[in-house]
Amino acid sequence: MPRIKEQKRMYEEERIEYSKEDVRFGTPEIVAKYRAKRLKEGLKNPGSKSHGNCLIEVGSSVGFQLFPFADTFKQVIAVEIDKRKLELAKKNAAVLGFKNVDFVLGDALDKNTIEQIRDIITEKNLKVESVFLDPERAESEQERTLGTLKPDVMKFIAIYGKFTENIAIELPPHIKKEKLTKLPGHELEYISVDNNLNRLTAYFGNLNKADVSLILLPEESRIVKDIFEKKLIAHLNEITGEYKYFYEINPALLVADVLAEALMQSKIDLAEVKVFEHKAKTYLLSNKLLGQEIGIAYGILTVTEVDDDAIKSHLDKKKAGKVILHGNIKQNEYFMLKLKFEKGLRGDKALHLFLIDKCIICEKL
Question: Could you give the domains of the chain?
Answer without folding.
Answer: 20-224 (3.40.50.150), 245-364 (no CATH)
